[in-house]
Amino acid sequence: AQLSCLARLLAAKNLTADFGSFPPDLLLFNPSEVRAGSCREFYGRASRGKLELLARGSARRTRLLRGALSCLVSGVGWPGTPTLLLVKPLRGAGGSSPSAGSAPRAGGSAPCGPGTQHPLSLSQHLCTFPAPLSLSQHLSPSVPQAAREGFRRSFSAAYSSQSPSQREKSLILLRALAAASAPSPPRLKRSSGRCLSQPITASSIADSILFFDYDTPEQFDLCLSNKVFLENLEALLAQPLPTEYSLVLKKKMDQMFPGGIPEEQLRRLGPLSRLYSEEEMGGWAVTSGRTLAALLSPSGGAWRDSQVQQLLSTCLARGGSLTGPLLREIGGKRLCNLQEEQIQLIPAEALGTAGHLNISSCSQAKKEQLYRKAREAFASLAGTPGRYYCQIRPFLGGAPAEDLKDLANAGVAIDMDLGTFLALNPKELQKLSVTDVKNLLGEHLPELKEAENESLVMSWVQRQSQRELDCVLGIGLQGGLQEPTGTTPPPHPSTSASATSLATVPVPTTLSTVPSPPNPSTSASATPMATTPVPTTLSTVPSPP
């Protein structure tokens, strides 16, 4: 009732005059004809609305979707009016707006750019929109078969070249296309237990979008024989299939190999492998680097870290070996997730060909493990410190101070970047002298001043002489140890031995008064003082009469 009321209120409105000011949901109820000059922008905005607001098969929904298709194919010259159709931007399929002059090539790809002209090419008009568009395969019979095939090839080629995240968005669109193409809600039917459509063949896999032709996972399962499945696995995986359809493929694979999937079949799993649990992967026969590389290929989509951990554990437990290219594919972060015992199984030469691995997330113990292996791998370069440093740099977070000092005193400029310096083992860095740090950083030494508030730098500075920091580095670092002040200078070298002895051995500086016989010429004699450990005056000894 509310929608009906809204429709009456909008009956006198022309939403196409200033459609940018209306929300997308409102544009779905537009009662006016959309001008050809702005129809693409109008339907592009309307496509972001909730199509379910319009009842399936309703006149308003039919008119809207036909208008969108008419806008898309205007000027192509197709006879008749196409059937109900959803037109919606396919987000993520490409960020540019190519020209409309291209058409599908023989191989099935459909580049959007200058090329040969095909006036009836549907894919050509897909490229004229601000973002690539996707159309339902359920076109009217009045649309030429060649155009329908052109669209299918164009969509399939675009899908096959998309990243996994872009494919997810495409699958969301396909669901909307299938829903919009249905004239009425699907009736709930009791399972028939048999294929109600044509059986899936190698030809139909190559020439159609199976998700549209087999509208339930059950029918997809019943119409796909195990033989066709196994012989055409790669082609099936290239199809835009929602997760529930992919699970049908997984079920067939498990049914065909109840005792475990053979290694040659594991290499073919592609995106299907990501649907297996860690427990299921534990039984895989992954024994070669070739199989591991095929499974880890990014073309199959993203793995969960726990899955990769299980995959590597399974491979190593079955005697498999990790090569340099495999380590590069695994990445430093996942390498750090391995157990220390597993890292110990990695050959040193594998690190030598792994390229740059970011092992910053490793524990200190694992960094030291990997450093020792890297030092072994690059030992032949030790005679050329510059080349040696470039290769071992990613692993220096595990280096002991002795090795860092050797690099500093190699006699050539190391020019360690500040990031590598700050990633050194904090305990080992504190053992480096001011000269060591100067030689390691080289031309990057001034950058150390910018990092003076880093806890690692502050603690190192506090251990160094401020005078050395000023004289050797000269970059203004403060906070080092100051020279002691107010000390008595040492005795002059010409001081006599006796004086030196007195200065070091406590002796009395006065002697007790020694009584002497009376002297007639003296009016009074010195009075003896009480004997004390430290007398204060010397007594006068009178001369004999």
Automatic annotation (TrEMBL):
Its main location: membrane. The gene is Mslnl. This is MSLNL protein. Belongs to the mesothelin family. Keywords: Cell adhesion, Glycoprotein, Membrane, Signal. Residues 96-115, 494-514, 521-545 have a biased composition (Low complexity). InterPro entries: Mesothelin (IPR010335), Stereocilin-rel (IPR026664). One of its GO terms (cellular component) is membrane. It is found in: Membrane. Residues 95-116, 480-545 are annotated as: Disordered. Pfam families: Mesothelin. One of its GO terms (biological process) is cell-matrix adhesion.
